[in-house]
Amino acid sequence: MTTNTESRISQRGASTIWIMLLTVASTVTTLLLSCATPFPALAALAAVHMHRRDGMTLMGLAWLASQLTGFLILGYEMKETTTGWAIGLAVAALGSAAGAYAALDRLNGKSTVLRLAIAYGAGFVAFKLVILAFSVWLGGVATTLDPDILARQFLRNGAILIGLFALYHGLVALGVPAARGRAAAA
């Protein structure tokens, strides 16, 4: 018989495992796509499967891993604009998660796929709005608003979300404990 404290520790461990696994997965994506960390996809997956605090931790660590990958491996230059965009991406990553969680606050009990789609849409919009705000300051408004680029990014992040969702459920089926769910947070 496990105690309530042991149960909370094991739930915390499961969330930590998923934060680390998804951070690694996003780093691999960053390497493969040269700077395209799938923050909206991560935000949606976190909003559906994790407590808000864990999801925000995931977004912060994924952002940090992305920046370390960019500056240390991909050779980003240290200059004012790259530093500005690093800050902008941090705000956008957290904003994406906040948008995804906010969209799901009233959807408990709906299907997981519907919740994931709604969280993804909200996370993507929140992410792009923050990027737009930073592009006004740092340049690139036309690129940020380009419909072809937006569509490619939406589809690419959506495909990554499907892959991460399959990875999550495949690993859970193999015995990796599920992340500490949102239902427990209520």
UniProtKB/TrEMBL annotation:
**Keyword Transmembrane helix set for record:** yes
Q: Which UniProt keywords apply?
A: Membrane, Transmembrane, Transmembrane helix
Segments crossing the lipid bilayer? 17-46, 58-76, 82-104, 116-138, 158-179
Protein's UniProt name: Uncharacterized protein
Write down the species: Sphingomonas colocasiae
